[in-house]
Protein: Holliday junction resolvase RecU
Amino acid sequence: MNRKQANRGMWFETVISNINRVYKQKKIAIIDKVATPISYNTRTGKARYQEKSTVDFVGCNNKGKYIAFDTKEVKIKNLPLKNVSDHQVKYLTDTKRMGAEAFLLVLFRFNDTCFKLDIDQFNDFKKQHDRKSIPYEWFNENAEIVRSGNGVIFDYLTDVDHIVN
Structure:
């Protein structure tokens, strides 16, 4: 994996981590970044992933609703389906079946628009369309645009079980 690919999405993850700190301070939710287990080879000085992580973030809102999501940042005008790993889709789908809020946060860098895509919508798109990517236009027509609010740039929890402030 080259350096450019390894850092893909790090800016967006950092922004979401900062938003999560605000949510925690305001007692809206406690959402934590899921650490990816890595091993470090002292001889070569290289690190590698030990196993696949589930998703980027998990937690719960102030009503006890479990929340799991992954962040995706793209510079182009579509989200390649290959950017969402099968194990991530499975984890999100399984948690959704258990009553959790499970979704993808997708940031299109060409215009800095963020969308919240429920995992069921993602799965439906894959079943109904013979495509390798989800176009920006589809997001614009079908997914929820994440706007600023609650003192954060991307207020992605505005509708999760009618959060109590």
